[in-house]
TrEMBL record:
Domain Peptidase S33 tripeptidyl aminopeptidase-like C-terminal residue range list: 242-324
Signal peptide: none
A Pfam family of this chain: Abhydrolase_4
Lineage: Bacteria, Pseudomonadati, Myxococcota, Myxococcia, Myxococcales
Protein name: Peptidase S33 tripeptidyl aminopeptidase-like C-terminal domain-containing protein
Length: 388
């Protein structure tokens, strides 16, 4: 807090210079200064960087030759509505289950309805051995930790299945998963190396359009899979001591550019839900502007093999609409899960069943190696914070 106060005293209202607009001006001026004649400039941005990239395009509409965005924040600001985002991705995940015969055999022909039933039972005391009176919150937080990663889709679904059954072996397996994926609950977390004050300065000033702290808090009650992060976000917003700055509305719109654009988002993206991108095709209707929805992938969708091959083709020749046919192979997803993944998350040989076990698993979870699991663990170790 000493550093926070010291910066406020030093800069005062000048803190507003440390904004998305300020960063976008820096990017445009740097390109202008460093660009050599005849050099092609392609702007590549992911997550919050897409919000910054769109601001840059608003300010320098003719400078770049092309732009690639992945894990896209809306032009009005990255979403702080984490409870809503979690529920949206949970609904899509359980919808995927409804299309798979194996998954339907475990969670019924209506998996989302089954999850609603599980929550109702938990509220009445079912499976309280997990987390006592806070088992409902525990379930939402655990699902939130697993959602948004392709390889962890079966883990999220099997977690609901195990909590529904709630045998002693299931309780042990789910607690094993919690120790792997929710270290903050035990607690062992660490912040990453971002500039926390710059980060909060932008979040608190630019991402609260159309919602109040109380509205964010009470969204917890509007959704099924709702980990309740809106409470801490609202408290933090109200306690933020620096002056909030404003951004002109014309800079909080999709940039009206004809620049070739490739816009990539996963259908399971939790930090930047695809539902928040309604109207993006209308905003970028040009013949060289392409929106790519990546099936069953999360926030890092753009870095997977198929989307990355689309990016490479686009960067090589932005004037040609890229071939996106490889996406069709990503529609299929294995919901059974492997014994290796099960050992990493549950400490059991089978993701869904206990194979005769009636008590705790005979061994601890294997060292995590699954890429999606490793990403989820990294996020969890940062503690509860925004993910873009």
């Amino acid at each position: 807090m000493t550093c926070l106060s010291s910066l406020a005293r030093k800069w005062g209202d000048g803190l507003a210079q440390f904004s998305t607009t300020g960063a976008a001006l820096d990017i445009g001026n740097a390109i202008e200064s460093l660009r050599e004649p005849g050099t092609k400039v392609v702007v590549f941005a992911t997550s919050y960087g897409t919000f910054l990239g769109n601001r840059y395009l608003n300010l320098f509409p003719g400078q770049a030759d092309a732009a690639v965005f992945g894990g896209i924040c809306p032009a009005t600001g990255c979403s702080i509505r984490h409870d809503r985002s979690t529920d949206l991705v949970a609904q899509e995940t359980f919808r995927v289950c409804s299309t798979d015969p194996f998954c339907r055999s475990k969670l019924s022909a209506d998996p989302w309805g089954k999850l609603e039933e599980i929550y109702q039972r938990v509220r009445r005391g079912h499976c309280n051995d997990l987390y006592g009176r806070d088992t409902e919150y525990f379930l939402s937080a655990l699902l939130d930790a697993a959602l948004g990663e392709r390889t962890l889709v079966p883990v999220a679904l099997a977690t609901a299945y195990r909590i529904d059954r709630c045998s002693p072996a299931d309780v042990s397996a789910v607690m094993n998963l919690a120790r792997v994926m929710m270290p903050w609950a035990f607690p062992v977390t660490s912040r990453d190396g971002i500039s926390a004050y710059l980060y909060e300065n932008i979040v608190e000033s630019e991402f609260w359009d159309g919602i109040t702290p109380d509205q964010l808090r009470y969204e917890y009650f509007d959704y099924l899979v709702s980990p309740g992060y809106g409470f801490s976000m609202a408290d933090q917003h109200e306690a933020w001591p620096w002056p909030l700055y404003s951004t002109p509305s014309e800079l909080k719109r999709w940039a009206p550019v004809s620049t070739p654009m490739l816009l990539v988002n996963g259908t399971l993206d939790l930090p930047t839900p695809i539902a928040d991108l309604q109207g993006i095709e209308a905003a970028f209707p040009g013949p060289t502007q392409t929106v790519v929805r990546v099936p069953n992938e999360g926030h890092g969708a753009i870095l997977e093999d198929c989307p990355l091959s689309i990016v490479r083709a686009f960067v090589e020749n932005p004037s040609i609409r890229p071939n996106i046919s490889c996406l069709s192979a990503m529609e299929a997803i294995d919901l059974r899960g492997s014994s290796s993944l099960s050992r990493q998350v549950f400490g059991t040989n089978d993701l869904w069943e206990n194979a005769g076990q009636s008590a705790a698993p005979a061994f601890l979870a294997d060292t995590p190696t699954d890429p999606g699991l490793l990403r989820a663990i990294d996020r969890a170790r940062e503690g509860l914070k925004h993910r873009w």
